TrEMBL record:
GO molecular function, one term: RNA methyltransferase activity
SUPFAM superfamilies: S-adenosyl-L-methionine-dependent methyltransferases
Gene3D superfamilies in the cross-refs: Sun protein, domain 3, Vaccinia Virus protein VP39
GO CC term, one of those recorded: nucleolus
Pfam families to which the protein is assigned, alphabetical: Methyltr_RsmB-F, NSUN5_fdxn-like, NSUN5_N
Phylogenetic classification of the source organism: Eukaryota, Fungi, Fungi incertae sedis, Mucoromycota, Glomeromycotina
Superkingdom as given in the UniProt entry: Eukaryota
Catalytic activity: a cytidine in 25S rRNA + S-adenosyl-L-methionine = a 5-methylcytidine in 25S rRNA + S-adenosyl-L-homocysteine + H(+)
Gene Ontology terms: biological process: rRNA base methylation
Xref: InterPro entries: MeTrfase_RsmB-F_NOP2_cat (IPR049560), MeTrfase_RsmB-F_NOP2_dom (IPR001678), NSUN5_7_fdxn-like (IPR049561), NSUN5_RCM1_N (IPR048889), RCMT (IPR023267), SAM-dependent_MTases_sf (IPR029063)
Protein name: 17687_t:CDS:1
Length: 474
């Protein structure tokens, strides 16, 4: 029964939005991680149905000592698990459920008749059904420890077949590994491939990270020896990605206000071989932008708290009301989140040497995405959105034009991803750059274009060459 008690605690934390499914079910104190993850995910998918069955059967009216979450888990196993409650040892909670077994099963049948469905799976919200299975297993190669080629060879030795590219990520053949066409250090495997015991995962040579989660660090792309701030860093996948891009050079200040999550960041980044990270327990908002230690910071990564509505693993946590951004409780929550997100960006604008700020959320809601971007742009004359050519230009899904005040050019500078359609988590990224930097980049781009357009047979006189070089430097 300890397993179900722990599962009940996890359900309560999810309902209070204290963490994510994966963080809670894969925690160190969970012994049967795979079993726990499956139970929580499947229970949440059926939770709306289970709630109706429990209420209609008056189970908790009769069994007053039976906790609601325990009842939810046991009713799930009784009605929707192939093995029912056979694996559960006898105890008062099991007896309470079995006492009402016939009534509970009758309520399930009545519900299926009412909804005109034959199979249990048809009771699940379509947005949740098969959501996990449509997203491939993405692995980011940790170039601090190995290479893409070595990782590919590792999987080939395990009888995987390499595909250089595949446009249909919704249908990946078993035992297939694919090179991602947007991110050079990302490899793609079939959905639900379990790599938790793979030696490359255990050694930190590969990192299990959704493709969209790799976008912010990739767009940031700090230079070697640069100084960077990761403002909301835990659990640390984006931080270790930055470290990898920087080849362990320079310095990354990684902030998090949650001490436990910061300890997790330290653990994961050590495993990844990162040596340029300064973990800071505290709020980025309380840091002084004029502090001399930040005098060389050129890039800030902002991935602040958000609704998490784009996370495939969290879709099951949301009822239909919670997915509808017009519902009052969610409207209030999105308002609070977006105000916090806005404060984070505006604070980042105050760092005098910063040239690039990458803002991201794992949210599908415009309130946390385009609306936040519009508001902060109205409050700055120093920063603007980076041009599309500098923000994953080959990625086709961009910002929503109508949510950017019908400014199509601005929307094109933003990046979005949608679960199922893009085969990633739902994500949003905006890249702000200091206007003087963008101007420099545009001049360089024009000069490079001029250089490339000069015919090879043409030899410019010395003064022309000198003029072009001077323009390049400027």
């Amino acid at each position: 029964m300890n397993f179900y008690k722990q599962a009940s605690d996890i359900l309560e934390k999810l309902q209070n939005r204290k963490s994510s499914i994966k963080s809670l079910t894969l925690a160190d104190d969970v012994k049967e991680k795979k079993k726990m993850y499956a139970l929580i995910c499947n229970t949440l998918k059926y939770k709306g149905v289970i709630d109706k069955i429990i209420d209609n059967s008056q189970l908790l009216v009769v069994e007053k000592k039976l906790p609601r979450n325990i009842a939810t888990l046991l009713v799930h196993d009784l009605l929707f698990s192939p093995n029912g409650l056979k694996s559960l040892s006898d105890g008062p909670y099991k007896k309470s459920i079995l006492k009402h077994e016939i009534r509970l099963k009758c309520e399930l049948v009545k519900l299926k008749v009412k909804l005109k469905v034959k199979n249990n799976e048809d009771l699940i919200n379509p947005e949740l059904r098969n959501s996990e299975t449509t997203v491939p297993r993405y692995i980011r190669v940790n170039t601090l420890k190995t290479t893409v080629e070595k990782v590919v060879e590792h999987f080939k030795a395990k009888k995987y077949k390499l595909e250089e590219s595949n446009d249909d990520l919704g249908d990946i053949s078993p035992q297939t590994i694919i090179k991602d066409k947007h991110l050079p250090e990302l490899l793609i495997l079939p959905p639900n491939t379990d790599l938790h015991n793979d030696p490359l995962y255990l050694s930190g040579d590969i990192i299990l990270q959704d493709k969209a989660s790799c976008f912010p660090s990739f767009i940031c792309s700090p230079l070697i020896d640069s100084h960077v701030i990761d403002a909301c860093a835990a659990p640390g996948n984006k931080t270790s990605h930055l470290s990898s891009i920087m080849q362990n050079s320079g310095k990354i200040w990684a902030f998090d206000i949650d001490k436990k999550r910061l300890e997790l960041l330290k653990k994961l980044t050590r495993k990844a071989g990162c040596e340029n990270i300064v973990a800071v327990h505290g709020s980025f908002l309380e840091e002084n932008p004029l502090d001399s230690k930040y005098s060389n910071v050129e890039c800030i990564l902002l991935d602040p708290s958000c609704s998490g509505s784009g996370m495939v693993s969290r879709l099951a946590e949301n009822t239909q009301d919670q997915l509808d951004s017009t519902q009052k409780p969610l409207v209030e929550r999105l308002k609070n989140l977006s105000e916090f997100q806005e404060r984070m960006i505006l604070h980042a604008f105050k760092f005098p040497t910063v040239k690039k700020i990458v803002y991201s959320t794992c949210s599908i809601y415009a309130q946390e995405n385009e609306h936040v971007v519009r508001r902060v742009l109205e409050q700055t004359s120093v920063f603007e959105l980076a041009d599309r050519k500098d923000v994953m230009p080959s990625w086709s899904r961009r910002g929503i034009t109508s949510e950017m005040g019908d400014d199509e050019e601005a929307a094109e500078k933003l990046v979005r991803s949608i679960p199922n359609e893009d085969h990633t988590n739902g994500f949003f990224v905006a890249c702000f750059v200091r206007k003087s930097v963008q101007c420099e980049n545009n001049v360089r781009s024009k000069v490079d274009s001029m250089d490339n357009s000069i015919d090879d047979s043409f030899i410019a006189p010395p003064e022309t060459k000198h003029s072009l070089k001077r323009k390049k430097r400027g």
